[in-house]
């Protein structure tokens, strides 16, 4: 086990990593920008080093400043958290070249999953099902519209780099394709510096189900079951749950096996998530799930997996990065109960979920059997510089109805003043009839907004 690590992140995830490290006796070094001088993660860490201005490009995205800070603090390893540099292969490589350990997968594994088209080709070779579509290099508009016609409308245009819904357009008719392609390429170029796209069949009634995987340096890989992340707005997850409602053991085995094959195909080490799109037009079926992408890092929604599997995934990350084998075999892992996570944001649902700012003049979370992962305290400010996440609220219960009731009650007991939040929206969503009945899909929130 390491004696000291640097956390190349901020906010909720930095605080979450610090708590596990402290329990294991590992000292922590925080980094902070001008905007985060008094931040919660800075107060929690054993040491803190200033790395630059509020703009992420001058602080949390500066590979050189972060590695230099680790050297000054005599840290042995760097944990990237999620976001920022967590899936940056060049950063992982630079960390290793500096004689430090990157708490995550190898640079090669990150690169293998970094571009969606190359990743899908690799997955096809590994026997992992992929969505029918065009994932090649040719990008001429005329050629791409021919491919779309062969696939059959509706189709989805997707940027091959990045994620979060940027560079993505649904196209229902051939006449709409040229304008949608131009817009997707323009957005992809602006967001990722790469305007190449791929074309996929658009599934009319999809669910987003992902599998948590873990690999070690001895070649062992396990999956820790599934999470259903279908409740999304603008391709951003809102409420996640584990396990997935309606999941059969046959389908869980098929998806888990495919996820493990995906991880083995790139010699994966550490925590990762294989994301699948599932066609539920005829219900959940083992031959109707398709690889979307692999996130080569810890996911925001990892607490629901920790709840049902009874493990600490950050502890696993630290142990595996230190050269230890996986703490459990596949046969030793089992699902216990049901868990939900809701993301509480400073944002205005009535204005298209526009981010909000403000000082948290009042902040109260429920007591009892509720897990709160927060990176802010009462009196802290939500600034325009970073993601406006206030907290993640996670509940766990023996079954889905009990867990969902506990989620609604916990959200109702949460109090936030000083900024606009999505709390009321989350409460309404937890009672939405289709979701309540265990029938989520990725279009549910948009349909509710239009109703």
Number of strands: 23
Q: Please, what is the average pLDDT?
A: 95
Q: Name the overall outline.
A: globular
- The helix fraction, in percent, is 25-40%
- Total helical segments: 15
Our measurement of the CA-to-CA distance between the termini, rounded to an integer number of angstroms, reads 53 Å
Q: Which class do the helix and strand fractions yield?
A: alpha+beta
The stretches of 5 or more residues where confidence is low (pLDDT under 50) are: none
Strand content: 25-35%
Main sheet summary: 8 strands, antiparallel
Gyration radius over CA: 21 Å
Biggest sheet strand line-up: 14-13-10-11-12-15-22-20
Could you walk me through the main structural features you see in this protein, from its secondary elements to its overall organization?
Helix 4 (89-97) links the parallel strand 4 and strand 5 (101-102). The longest helix is centred in the middle third of the chain and has 17 residues, at 249-265. The protein is α+β, with helices and mostly antiparallel strands and 451 residues long. Helix content is 33%, strand content 27%. The chain contains 15 helices and 23 strands. Helix 4 (89-97) runs antiparallel to helix 5.
List strands and helices in order, with pairings.
Elements: E1 4-7, H1 11-23, E2 27-33, H2 40-44, E3 47-52, H3 63-73, E4 77-79, H4 89-97, E5 101-102, H5 107-114, H6 116-125, E6 133-134, H7 141-151, E7 155-159, E8 168-171, H8 177-192, E9 197-201, E10 206-215, E11 221-233, E12 236-242, H9 249-265, E13 270-279, E14 289-295, H10 302-309, H11 313-321, E15 338-345, E16 347-348, E17 354-355, E18 358-359, E19 362-364, E20 370-374, E21 381-382, E22 389-397, H12 400-413, E23 415-417, H13 423-430, H14 433-436, H15 444-450
Parallel strand pairs: 1-2, 1-4, 2-3, 4-5
Antiparallel strand pairs: 6-9, 7-8, 7-9, 10-11, 10-13, 11-12, 12-15, 13-14, 15-22, 16-17, 18-21, 19-23, 20-22
